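User: quick one, fold this
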Amino acid sequence: MKYKANSTIPLSDIKINDGYFNKYRDLVGKVIIPYQWDVLNDRLEDVETSHCIENFKIAAGLSNGSFQGAVFQDTDLAKWLEAVGFYLSSYGRDEKLEKLADDAIDLIEKAQQPDGYLDTYFIICAPDKKWKDLQEGHELYTAGHMMEAAVAYYEATGKEKFLNVVRKLADLLVKTFGDEDGKCKGYPGHPEVEVGLIKLYRITGEKKYLELARFFVNARGVGENYFLEEEKKADFERIFPDFNDYDPAYSQSHKPVREQKTAEGHAVRAVYLYSAMADLAAEYGDDELTECCINLWDNIVHKRMYITGSIGSSGFLERFTTDYDLPNDCNYSESCASIGLAMFGKRMAELTHDATYFDDVERALYNTVLSGIAMDGKGFFYVNPLEVWPDACMEHTSRAHVKSERQKWFGVACCPPNIARTLASLGQYIFCSREDGIDINLFISSETKATICDKPVIIRIDSRIPWEGDVKIQIESIDENDELAGEIYIRVPYYAENCVVGMKADNMDIDGAEYEISHGYIPLTLKGKSYTVTMKFDMKASFVHANPLVRADSGKVAIMKGPLVYCLEEQDNFENLASVFIKSDVEIGEEFDTSTFGGSAKLSFDGFKLSEEGWDSRTLYGKRSPHFDKVKLTAIPYAYWGNRQHNREMIVWIKEINHIV
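Assistant:
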């Protein structure tokens, strides 16, 4: 059967040559994918055991043993395969890597049961419990990641085996779930299958997959809560003790999705669900669902998101809490949650054609997503705090989940392969197709082949962001006989000050070129056979304040340069960074250092350190007049922290004091 590709620009037609991102992206094929393959096969002695591949071998009858790992361990392989697919699309075919993937797909096919069922935990451990613990069993979550991986691999290689495996699985879901009599009326405890089903629909044209995704979304939280009713059944057995006294808000099932106004519960589950809702709103022209997505997005980014684009304020249940509750040293801010936020924001921009959604997509990608991986590709943060005092990150405390050093792997390892697939698919965030043109959403140096008004064009972006506000965009007709047609919509970043735009058609200046900004974009009507746009704007580092209702940041400032958040690290400064104060009108010096982090703008400025003079180890409290010592401070991009020395302090929000003379 021939399948159709998604309507977005294929990754194979987008070539990224960006200095900021490629220092990470180039590691995907060279380091990250091979390293993670070794982890999945338990080949590294000093890394936490995965057992993922072994589980599939046991389920396929090729090995003896018992299931090990989390109930959703299969998804590590699914996301690894998706990363492979995206990498092959972005960088070109690789026979050796493709062979590894094909062998993994053969193993998955062997593990799949005749009716299409595919989940090694239940195949091995609980074959009589299938679909009986949707609250925490993660069968549908796992299925969704398999679907996403199969679509990505098919688009990269044209090979249908994996796609046929997941179609068989999806057909089983269609037979099992739905409104019809005799079908299960449940929905996933961890949303994800909805996104996978929609992708599967878009590539196969089988509307039953889209309709099942809509059923899962529309059924959620309607009537008697499915998960609470599930718990009452005599054969229900809990998998996770943490889910005792289950709160439906944890899984966004506390009320119908169309009635939800605030982002609640587990942050990753939330943004995966919202991503599917945005997709469905687009597919069905559902204005009510669109409005719901707008409200949820606004609640997140205006009241429940960190300056770094991370979400999830509480380490307990990895969840949203309440508006403006954004603690810096005990937050969760899971890497997967920022990836999910970027997924959601991308879809909202495509749905509404409003560029402002990409302000926070960009924020997440440039800061938290890159913070989640070491610059050698072999270490990962699951949690992304904004303040770290290593000595206080102790077991059995509120900071037990916070690490001051990236880990080689995790027992629950959703983040490492998720980061890999995001880096490999970065091109999908740069451009978005419309009927009459193309949106340019991120200024990442790249070249793409696209079609505008049925005419093939090449778009080249040459960008100095995030270091300088200097962007050049060239659009050229591929066919020398064709004139350009249609529109280009160029996002204007929120941090672009004194923006000057220049325009040329066929190398001739467009006299009196004027532009207006509509929904965050500059819309341009293409002329001639080539069109060039230049954007130059101020992007100096500056101090940023939080809304006064953010109690954790009251009286503090952070530093941003363009989309980048900066931090102080102990290595460049000193211990006890919490004792640092600054005046927010101080001049910030900028220097591009080619020797650190593969090239990075370092910031320096004067500050003050609360003196320890007059205090000794026997005095914990006392009447003392504060004394401040003048100090020189150095800040680095938040994404880079922890890449030089380990177990050192870091802080983003710095105390502000403007009355010191």
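User: anything notable?
Assistant: The CA atoms of residues 542 and 559 lie 6 Å apart.
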